[in-house]
Design brief:
This protein is of the alpha+beta class. It is built from three helices and nine strands; from the N terminus they run H-H-E-E-E-H-E-E-E-E-E-E. Strand 7 and strand 8 form a beta hairpin. The N terminus is likely disordered.
Length: about 170
């Protein structure tokens, strides 16, 4: 679990970046009311676990990479007024939810295991909040990790943002 002190130290290290005040507000909003832990690994050989993930049970999504900034599971509810100051909306994520703090370096990616071929069209949809200069791109990849069918950067001025990617 990440402690409140770790979040404050991480926020203090961001003072040189643009939108540091927004980042600091979010750090306080999350630090007071939210605890985080690492996303678990994707379960192997369990066909009952699917891709529809609310992060309250095992699912097929995890943080991939070996960077300092990793996707985490958050539990608790951010303070609504501090959340409003940081995001511009009173709509809070339902717990548990996944989050990543971006501190200017490369970050891990939120990834699933391979999705079997589908009969017809399938879609993946996401609801997200991006704070400060953070941006999000949703892509399908082939088994070699080559991106295709990407959303492009989702620089949405309205939070929460919504994204959907179709697979045919």
């Amino acid at each position: 679990m990440t402690s409140y002190r770790d979040r404050i130290n991480a926020a203090a290290a961001m003072h040189h970046q643009p939108n540091a005040l927004v980042s600091r507000i979010l750090q306080v909003a999350l630090g007071l009311f939210v605890t985080t832990s690492d996303l678990p690994s994707i379960p192997v050989d369990n066909p009952l676990i699917n891709y529809d993930c609310s992060f309250d049970t095992e699912c097929r999504w995890t943080s991939a990479g070996s960077h300092l900034d990793r996707w985490r599971v958050a539990k608790g509810e951010p303070d609504s007024l501090l959340w409003l100051a940081a995001t511009g909306t009173m709509q809070l994520p339902s717990e548990p939810f996944s989050l990543i703090e971006i501190r200017g370096q490369q970050t891990d990616v939120l990834i699933s295991d391979a999705i079997a071929c589908q009969d017809g069209t399938s879609s993946l949809s996401f609801i997200y909040w991006a704070i400060g200069n953070a941006d999000l791109e949703v892509c399908l990849t082939d088994l070699a990790g080559v991106k295709f069918n990407c959303t492009g950067m989702l620089d949405s001025p309205v939070m929460p943002g919504k994204s959907e990617v179709e697979a045919k």
